[in-house]
Amino acid sequence: MARVIVDVMLKPEILDPQGQAVARALPRLGFSGVSAVRQGKRFELELDGPADEAAIADVRKMAETLLANTVIEDFTVRVEQ
Amino acid sequence: MSAARVGVVTFPGTLDDQDAARAVRLVGGEAVPLWHADRDLKGVDAVFLPGGFSYGDYLRCGAISRFAPLMEEIVPAARAGLPVLGTCNGFQILCEAHLLPGALTRNASLHYVCRDQRVRIETADTAWTNAYEAGQEITLPVKHGEGRYVADAETLAELEAQGRVVVRYVGGNPNGSLNDIAGVRNEAGNVVGLMPHPEHAVEELVGAPGTDGLGFFTSVLKKLVDA
After folding, report:
1. Quaternary structure (chain B) (predicted)?
2. In this structure, are residues A14 and A72 in contact, taking their beta carbons and an 8 Å threshold?
3. Is this prediction's ipTM beyond 0.90?
4. Angstrom distance (rounded) from CA B173 to CA B175
5. Domain assignment of residue A31, given as a range
């Protein structure tokens, strides 16, 4: 059993109006010192078996196929310890 | 000769399939209901992917619909030349399925926009716009929260150079789409996607803002008759 985390973020060049809205809200709430916010998605995948090389390759395939739209999004895959 | 048969796809959460079917019938075509879970195109001559919120827009708009069993039939048929039109959610599905380049993202304003929108038909050289003239301006309803068309700079330049921007917003861009793009086509011109709704502008009685959308349906019927 292992847990694999896939983080999906809009590519840097893609406008993120949601992140901008959050960034604009922070000063109104009294928080300062944040120059920019980007919003993304986090997927937690519970694997049946160990997170070996083959399993991670599979997860990358899942991310490319479904979890992320690689036209506009980048993703990272990591095993949670 | 029997009427041209235009398939209208229904996914869970599709909203505009009945309007689309009605528009097909209004111009003399036969609307054939197609169900997302079937692997059967029922021998249709063209396919319309209507708007709505298929699969609740979960994950990304169109991301789940793309893998529906029916799409496994539509994608190769579209690549082989079957005329396919996607409006709104249908456009999002065509982009997710990589039948069209680019993607639709959250409106820059973050607001859902519902209004009558002036657009320009940029090319009549598609299966779905040959009844218009290039440069013709028409008014169609738009209603979406995620209609901001984006593509990388190289793809955008290619679309513009090859005349593959089919519809462009004029008199104000409702969603911040790049180059004011409202709709694009594939290289062959048989697959077209756009955010505005021609199927909601086909009848004087209820067709606010008019009947400017009829041309999309007469175009594909004309194309099928000529073929």
Report:
1. Part of the FGAM synthase complex composed of 1 PurL, 1 PurQ and 2 PurS subunits.
2. yes
3. no
4. 6
5. 2-80
Hey, what CATH topology would domain B5-226 get? Rossmann fold (3.40.50)
Query: Are residues B152 and A13, on separate chains, in Cβ contact within 8 Å?
Result: yes
Active site residue B98: no
Break chain B into its structural domains and give their ranges.
Answer: 5-226
What b-and-e string marks burial along A33-51, b requiring 16 or more CB atoms within 10 Å of the CB?
Answer: eeeeeeebeebebebeeeb
**Residues of B in Cβ contact (< 8 Å) with A71:** 95, 101-103, 151-152
Q: What is the pLDDT along chain B (227 residues), one digit of tens a residue?
A: 578 999 999 999 999 999 999 999 999 999 999 999 999 999 999 999 999 999 999 999 999 999 999 999 999 999 999 999 999 999 999 999 999 999 999 999 999 999 999 999 999 999 999 999 999 999 999 999 999 999 999 999 999 999 999 999 999 999 999 999 999 999 999 999 999 999 999 998 876 689 999 999 999 998 888 87
Residues of B in contact with A17 (CB under 8 A): 106-110, 176
Q: Which of B88, B95, B122, B144 is catalytic?
A: B88
Structurally, chain A folds into a number of domains equal to: 1
Q: Catalytic residue at B199?
A: yes
Kindly report the CATH number assigned to the domain that includes residue A68. 3.30.1280.10
Query: What's the pTM value of the predicted model, to 2 decimals?
Result: 0.94
Q: Which residue from A18, A67, A69 is facing B106, i.e. has the nearest CB?
A: A18
DSSP H helical segments within chain B, as ranges?
A: 17-26, 69-79, 89-96, 153-161, 214-226
CA distance B98 to chain A (A): 9
What Å distances lie between residue B182 and B121, B139, B196, CA to CA? Answer: 10, 12, 7
